[in-house]
Structures are given as structure tokens and as C-alpha cells.
From TrEMBL:
Protein name, as recorded: EF-hand domain-containing protein
PANTHER family xrefs: CALCIUM BINDING PROTEINS, NEUROCALCIN HOMOLOG
Family indicated by similarity: Belongs to the recoverin family.
Keywords: Calcium, Lipoprotein, Metal-binding, Myristate, Repeat
Domain of life, source organism: Eukaryota
Taxonomic path: Eukaryota, Metazoa, Spiralia, Gnathifera, Rotifera
Domain EF-hand: 101-136
Entries under Pfam families matching the protein: EF-hand_7 (PF13499)
Annotated GO MF terms: calcium ion binding
């Protein structure tokens, strides 16, 4: 007797985040989710980099998503470096492309930055994230990032939150800030 897993359904959190970070309505988001599942040849709710890039190019974005931007989004969201993204990861990538605006989106973004999973963001975690985000933003605008002082940018961010470089930023501080 074989057990077949029922296809995954679109999660409420994914729907809410996409509605808040895009101009898509619920039906369009459902269609997007179904398209993701079509491209996901394995049926495991995961896509490799090539599939994700193809998906981002196919759906486009307000910023004119191209292969370079899609590659950078993949690099930001694939924090565990397993070379695969699921639909929730795609939602996070979309938030990065469009910019977070709701508490829920900031919470999701915090979880991406907190690579260690200790519910706090260290200076190094923020610096690595800012490196990826700066590259994403620059590639979207066709600019060079070699002039960006990531140490200063990260120090300025921590300073704005009233956190020293040797301290950690809490989720509550991040969302409220």
C-alpha cells in the first residue's frame, strides 16, 4: 500500500504577505502558487536555482526582474545554502524585491536575517544580510556596489536601534524600529 502525499495548499501567512507586498489579489496569488507547483518538477515544494530564476523571469516584477536580480534574490533567501527554495522562500524573496511594509513582513524578514536561529540578530548576521541586500538593490538599478562601506552601513543600522555592535538586536526591536 503506497501513501501519496496530498498536494500542499497555499498557506494563509503566504497569502497575507503577498497581498501586502504586491498588487495581486487572492485569485492571482493562487494562480502564482499553482504556477510555482507546475515549475517544481519534483513535487516537493522546492525549486533549484535554475527553476527559481525561470519563475521570477516568467512572473516579472515592478522592478523589471531579470536573471541577475532573480539570482541575487535566490542568494538572499537561500540562507541554508542547500540550493533549493520552497514557496515560502519565494514569498520572502518577493518581499525583498518590493520592500517590507507590515509587521508580518518584518517578522518574516527578521527570521531570514537570524541565520543562527537564536531569535536575535548579531552584527555579523546583519552585515551579511546587508551585503546581499545591497547587491540585490544595486543589480536592480544596474549600479556598482564596490563603493559601499558595509561596516559603516551595519554600524549605522545598529546605532539607529540603540544597539552596540557587540550586542544583539531582538525581534521586537527590529519590528518596532
Amino acid at each position: 500500500m503506497s501513501t501519496t502525499q496530498a498536494p500542499r495548499k497555499l498557506r494563509d501567512a503566504e497569502l497575507t504577505a503577498l497581498k501586502a507586498s504586491s498588487r495581486l489579489n487572492e485569485e492571482e496569488i493562487q494562480n502564482l502558487f499553482e504556477k510555482f507547483q507546475e515549475i517544481d518538477e519534483s513535487g516537493a515544494d522546492k525549486m533549484n536555482k535554475e527553476q527559481v530564476v525561470k519563475f521570477y523571469i516568467e512572473i516579472g516584477s515592478d522592478r523589471g526582474t531579470d536573471e541577475r536580480i532573480a539570482n541575487n534574490v535566490f542568494g538572499i533567501v537561500d540562507q541554508d545554502n542547500d540550493g533549493l527554495l520552497n514557496f515560502s522562500d519565494f514569498v520572502l524573496g518577493t518581499i525583498f524585491l518590493r520592500g517590507a511594509s507590515t509587521e508580518h513582513e518584518y517578522s518574516l524578514m527578521f527570521d531570514i536575517i537570524d541565520v543562527s536561529g537564536d531569535k536575535c540578530i548579531s552584527y555579523d548576521e546583519m552585515k551579511k544580510f546587508m551585503d546581499k541586500l545591497t547587491k540585490l538593490d544595486a543589480s536592480a538599478r544596474g549600479e556598482d556596489v564596490s563603493e559601499v562601506d558595509l561596516k559603516k552601513v551595519t554600524s549605522d543600522i545598529f546605532s539607529q536601534y540603540g544597539v552596540k555592535e557587540d550586542e544583539k538586536l531582538s525581534k521586537e526591536q527590529f519590528i518596532e524600529g
